[in-house]
Design a protein that fits this description.
Elements lengths: L8 E5 L4 H12 L3 E6 L2 H9 L5 E5 L7 H13 L4 E4 L14 H29 L2 E5 L12 H24 L2 E7 L5 H14 L3 H11 L8 H12 L10 E4 L8
Parallel strand pairs: 1-2, 1-4, 2-3, 4-5, 5-6, 6-7
Helix pairs in contact: 1-8, 3-4, 4-5, 6-7
Length: about 260
């Protein structure tokens, strides 16, 4: 299926690994020009080299209030337009609510929530010109509370509400805004948790994966590429009537409405 994304311009944050890397590679294969951002310049360079289209790596820390504006400015100046913003940056600290510090909470909101706010605000005038799109990569923790995921769940819930807010504004401005809630995806972070589980329970990684998946009520863990395919769909004209949509890509883990 031709998604008609060739020669369009996308910005992807958190693009150095995992889901962001997969999104970068998938959209590159669709012929998009990309600006990718993360803190690790070396990792970004590796991702850029793995792609077959024009990819500009920009190393910066989106917790810096000025960084999102710099990222959008670089993108607009280099390509002359912006068609898509994928807000994917941000990992939050897990742990017991009573042990998480003020600094932990501030870091979680600064990196994931406020980077989404600032990148979207800076990109909005450019997206308005192109009738572009914003896709927020959020997470199912924003819909289902977990005692060990207090910060992440709170941040994700805030971004889900922000998605609806921006979608409402987007109706007037001609910008589509949607969100994806990944479930348990086989990224480096999950692999580390699997390794810990395997060591604690004296089982193989494969067995650990099966047990952890079953414990979460799913058949298997997802792959970053499965999230990337949904991003490409939402970015395309095939999803033109999707506005404020929140799509759970979680293998059935979320059972609430």
């Amino acid at each position: 299926m031709d998604l008609q994304l060739t020669n369009k311009v996308a910005i992807i944050t958190g693009a150095s690994r995992g889901i962001g890397r997969a999104i970068t590679q998938f959209l590159s294969a669709e012929g998009m020009h990309l600006v990718i951002a993360a803190r690790s310049g070396e990792s970004l360079d590796e991702v850029a080299k793995s792609c077959n289209s024009n990819v500009i790596p920009v190393a910066l820390d989106l917790r810096d209030e000025e960084a999102p504006q710099r990222l959008i400015k670089i993108s607009a100046e280099h390509f002359g337009r912006i068609d898509l913003l994928v807000n994917n940056a941000g990992a939050t600290k897990r742990g017991d609510f009573l042990e998480l510090t003020e600094a932990d909470w501030k870091d979680g909101f600064d990196l994931k929530f406020f980077s989404t706010v600032r990148c979207t605000r800076a990109a909005w005038p450019h997206l308005k010109v192109t009738n572009g799109s914003v896709i927020n990569i959020v997470g199912i923790g924003g819909r289902t509370g977990d005692a060990e995921f207090a910060i992440g769940g709170s941040v994700n819930a805030a971004i889900l509400n922000l998605t609806k807010v921006l979608a409402d504004r987007g109706v007037k401005d001609g910008i589509r805004v949607n969100a994806i809630n990944p479930g348990s995806i086989a990224t480096d972070r999950l692999q580390a948790r699997l390794a810990h589980f395997a060591t604690e329970n004296y089982v193989s990684l494969d067995e650990a994966s099966k047990r952890m998946a079953l414990k979460q009520g799913i058949r298997r863990f997802g792959t970053p590429e499965e999230i990337a395919r949904v991003v490409a769909f939402l970015a395309s004209s095939a999803a033109d009537y999707c506005q404020g949509s929140i799509i759970d890509v979680d293998g059935g883990q979320t059972r609430t409405l």
